[in-house]
Amino acid sequence: MRLPLTLATATLLLTALAAPAGAAPPDDWQQVGTDARSGVSGLASEGAGSDSALFVNDNKRPGQPRLSRVTYREGAVAVGRLAWVGAEPSDLEAIAAIPGTPGEYLALASRGIVYRVRVDGATATVVDYAPLPAIEEGNDYESFALVARDGKFAALWADRGDGPGRPATLYAAPLTFASWGQPLFGTVTKRTYTSAYPAGDGTRHISDLAVTGSGRILASSASDAGDDGPFDSAVSDIGRVTLSAAGRARVTLAPSPVRLATYPGYKIEAVACLPGTTDALLGTDDENRGGYVRSAPYCGA
């Protein structure tokens, strides 16, 4: 499914630009940023039937963009920057929509702080924030996903890992919210994961996570040789998560994960299933080359 283009908010129209050498055909990827401040570090759809998604920018300095909106279709994209109101995070890496709460999201910074934000038009307002549980020294988080069942929630996130000697660590925990909006995490379970591709030095074994409607866990993996690349990525089906009626999450990793596709020349840091479709929206943070988005049919049963 391709998302239709609308201009419901003031946006900058960008047409498809040339993709990095060796990558997928340029008409499959659409450029949404042109420098290191405008790449895509995490994606969340704005809801079933919506033609837009939010993406976080991993900026660190005050006043730099933290959150943007993209509307997407084959051939062109439109991008608008959102104003961020409240505590300003450093290095946002992932974002997930809160099921059943339109306009509200959880965004994760690389050091483990989760921000609950409310989006109204072109403004994102911080409701509250809290640290992840079970933060360990040296952890670097790039992924965050939510699952829901009968009003119960669980969160999945991962330390990205680093090359052959450090696998990713995938965490899961029940999630509730205080009356004032703060996210509250329950008992944590964890699993380790090593990507089969990419696999060399600089590999981030999990650079983002998404969960399909049937509970399949999709993970992107990426290699990063520096701000000018070269980059390489893959998207894989790595297992399954189930959520009990009491809100307990159980993660089962596949003994042989299924590699869905590889993307030479791109550093995928964002994967989001689009509600009501079988498509995933993929996003890249290619550092000095900016960022790209495309859809792919990975979220079916």
Structural overview:
This protein is mainly β and 301 residues long. The protein has no helices and 23 strands. The chain has strands at residues 12-15, 30-33, 42-45, 52-56, 67-73, 76-81, 83-85, 92-97, 104-109, 113-120, 123-131, 141-149, 152-159, 168-177, 183-185, 189-193, 203-211, 216-224, 231-243, 249-262, 268-273, 280-284, 291-296. The strands form 5 sheets. It has a 5-stranded antiparallel β-sheet, with no helix packed on it. Strands 7-11-10-9-8 form a 5-stranded mixed β-sheet, with no helix packed on it. The protein is globular. It starts with 11 loop residues before the first strand and ends in a 5-residue tail after the last strand.
TL;DR of this structure?
By secondary structure, the protein is mainly β.
